[in-house]
Amino acid sequence: MTEKFVVAAKPREAQGTGASRRLRRTGWTPAIVYGANKPPQSILVEHKEIYRQMDYEAFYSHILTLDIEGQQEEVVIKAVQRHPAKKQVLHADFLRVQADQAIRVRVPLHFEGEEIAPGVKTGGGVAEHMLNEVEVECLPRYLPEYLTVDISKLELDDTLHLSDLTVPEGVEIVELKHENDAGVVSIHVPRIAKEEDEEEGGDEGEAAEGDSEQDDQQGDDAEGDDDADKS
Question: Strand, helix or coil at 168?
Answer without folding.
Answer: coil
